[in-house]
Amino acid sequence: MTAFALDEPIDRGPGLPRPGKLLRGAADSIPPSGLVLLGIFSVQLGAGFAKELFATLPPSAVVFLRIAAGALIMGAVARPRLRGLSWRDWAVGAGFGLTLAVMNLTFYEALARLPMGIAVAIEFLGPLGVAVAASRRRIDLVWVGLAAIGVLLLAPWGESASVSWVGIGFAMVAGACWAAYILLSAAAGRRFPGTSGLSFAMIVSALVILPVGVTTGGADLLQPELLLIGLGVGLLSSVIPYSLELQALRRMPKHVFGILMSLEPAVAALIGVLLLSEILHVQQWAAIICIVAASLGSTRTRER
Question: Is residue 10 part of a domain?
Fold first, then answer.
């Protein structure tokens, strides 16, 4: 889950520190497609490490660690300016943050019940739905049908009988929130300079998820090793991919970015196999391929 629509430059203000310049120069030396792929792998690697934490902490507590770490870092990098905001700005920022909190919470609940590749594939129906809804072409019905086939193949029957209906439900809610996230991130990008809208939303999200995370995590949240892993998850899942994608969007067309992002469910399945030993059946791989193909087809149709 990444910054799909926030493609404005990061507002770091005057006096950019030299380490920042060095990092930016290093990023400029990497092709934009490479930056996007690195961002995708970073997000899914963060999700994999987060899932390993579920043996110690409930998903809601892990979500809190991730969002809190991301909010602290993003708030320091792009501090949101609160003066002069209208009530509409506050409403958009608060709605953005609430959506971000629910999206991450439901996705992690899905991740606790489903293999990574399946959870991400179902969640990916959210941005696919936004893309299709914005088009008036009949060919998009083909991509809707292909995505529907993928969902049917993932349903808990046959080889997928062990897949949880509750997990699928959580993933679908996360996908709906991702669709709302895309729309709200575009609105926030118009009302907040740079990525300060994202920082504002992450702070709101951390405050929203705080009571749930602290209640379910309890004293375990104070363990130094868990805090360190949570910081790593926040970096891998939020800060690093957001930064890489924003840098890539400055140097590549949006439709190419969308095509590359369509690979995310397949990368999630691969990380699940390599990091978590989540072996998928042929039927489940076929479902993921259908959803990836639907996203690719929709993106290329919009390009034409």
Answer: no
